[in-house]
């Protein structure tokens, strides 16, 4: 197999997907938003270990990539909702497949290895 150049890797679709999905919480945020539009606090309640700042950063990154859409309603108090964009919704079957693979992998993983990853 021929080695890839940096330019080839930057143009690779896999590299683009990896960049978007590499955030610690990104796949789970996308998965939950694929089910329904949510407000910030709803998302934060799903992740008890995530800080406000970390969730804000992750949501902004996904918004910059065009994976999620942020809608601000001009009312008092302000209301902000997050939803997947059309291109973000295309990730749903991919994440479903990753989850199925993860469940299958857990069946083949030695008990000592699964305990050490927690």
Q: Report strand %.
A: 5-15%
Succession of helices and strands = HHHEHHEEHHH
**SS field, number of helical segments:** 8
Distance between the ends: 36 Å
Main sheet strand line-up: 1-3-2
Determine Rg (CA atoms, Å): 17 Å
**What's the rounded overall pLDDT mean?**
88
Structural class: mainly alpha
Per DSSP E runs of 2 or more residues, the count of β-strands stands at 3
Low-confidence stretches: none
Overall outline: globular
Summarize this entry quickly.
Helices cover 59% and strands 12% of the residues. It is mainly alpha-helical.
Describe the 3D structure:
It contains eight helices and three strands; from the N terminus they run αααβααββααα. It is mainly alpha-helical and 118 residues long. Strands 1-3-2 form a three-stranded antiparallel β-sheet. A hairpin with a 5-residue loop joins β2 and β3. The chain starts with 5 loop residues before the first helix and ends with a helix. The mean pLDDT is 88.
């Amino acid at each position: 197999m021929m080695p890839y150049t940096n330019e080839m890797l930057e143009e690779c679709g896999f590299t683009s997907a990896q960049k978007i999905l590499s955030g610690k919480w990104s796949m789970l945020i996308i998965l939950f938003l694929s089910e329904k539009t949510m407000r910030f606090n709803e998302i934060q309640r799903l992740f008890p270990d995530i800080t406000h700042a970390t969730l804000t950063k992750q949501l902004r990154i996904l918004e910059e990539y065009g994976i999620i859409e942020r809608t601000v309603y001009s009312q008092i108090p302000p209301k902000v909702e997050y939803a997947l964009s059309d291109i973000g919704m295309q990730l749903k079957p991919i994440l479903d497949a990753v989850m199925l693979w993860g469940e299958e992998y857990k069946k083949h993983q030695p008990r000592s290895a699964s305990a050490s990853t927690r």
